[in-house]
Design a protein that fits this description.
The complex is a heterodimer of chains A (110) and B (120). Chain A is mainly beta. Chain A has no helices and eleven strands. Helices cover 0% and strands 51% of the residues of chain A. In chain B, the strands form two sheets. In chain B, strands 2, 4, 5, 6, 9, 10 and 11 form a seven-stranded mixed β-sheet that branches. Classes of the chains: A mainly beta (110), B mainly beta (120).
């Protein structure tokens, strides 16, 4: 069974930079997993941020960027703002029309 | 503008069935893959099911395989999921999500979700 790992929580200061990661319990994440990233605030539907590792979804500011760092996918937020405080989820496509979500990272801006 | 509106949620007893619908508008429905994603109360997101743009390919998460069936009706621009043999652990908000352009593998747009509660 494929397990996608994310930091349970992270904090960043306003104006700061934070990098959230998305890994595999066994193996390395590569662009072949088509990593994508979503954010969600309580009671709201998810919003798409990044797909295909590093392509920003329509309307997403360039403060958000995706990459592969070492053996993980990464989401970097620069110039963090108060309303970036959300849950962030990564998803990996593992083939055969199967997707796996990470457990999510709760980002606090303080 | 893409719009996805889920309906059909409610309270159902364990072992019961429910069919959710997702009405799509603002895009050419028959050109895009579609998904169901769920979120149990206080938990993270879980991918549930996928259907190809033309309905010829489908797959399911292991947790629902054999119990849930995804389908689509291009004449009604509507996505469905038939949920049978429901269990308390199926309690969740169910979101439908539009796939990206062909050759991409992500969830492009989301509905607002519909709540399913499985309880006696």
């Amino acid at each position: 069974q494929t397990v996608v790992t994310q930091e349970p929580s992270f904090s960043v200061s306003p104006g700061g930079t934070v990098t959230l990661t998305c890994g595999l319990s066994s193996g390395s994440v590569s662009t072949s997993y088509y990593p994508s990233w979503y954010r969600q605030t309580p009671g709201q539907a998810p919003r798409t941020l990044i797909y295909n590792t590093n392509t920003r979804s329509s309307g997403v500011p360039d403060r958000f960027s995706g990459s592969i760092l070492g053996n993980k996918a990464a989401l970097t937020i620069t110039g963090a703002q108060a309303d970036d405080e959300s849950d962030y989820y990564c998803v990996l496509y593992i083939g055969n029309y199967i997707w796996v979500f990470g457990g999510g990272t709760k980002l606090t801006v303080l | 503008q893409v719009q996805l509106v889920e309906s059909g949620g409610g309270v159902v007893q364990p072992g019961g069935s429910l069919r959710l619908s997702c009405a799509a508008s603002g895009f050419i429905f028959s050109n895009y893959a579609m998904h169901w994603v769920r979120q149990a109360p206080g938990k993270g997101l879980e991918w549930v099911a996928f259907i190809r743009f033309d309905g010829t390919g489908k797959n399911y998460a292991a947790s629902v395989k054999g119990r849930f069936t995804i389908s689509r009706d291009k004449s009604k621009n509507t996505l469905y999921v038939q949920m049978n043999s429901l269990r308390p652990e199926d309690t969740a908000v169910y979101y439908c999500a539009k796939g990206g352009e062909r050759g991409t593998y992500f969830f492009d747009s989301w509905g607002q979700g519909t709540l399913v509660t499985v309880s006696s």
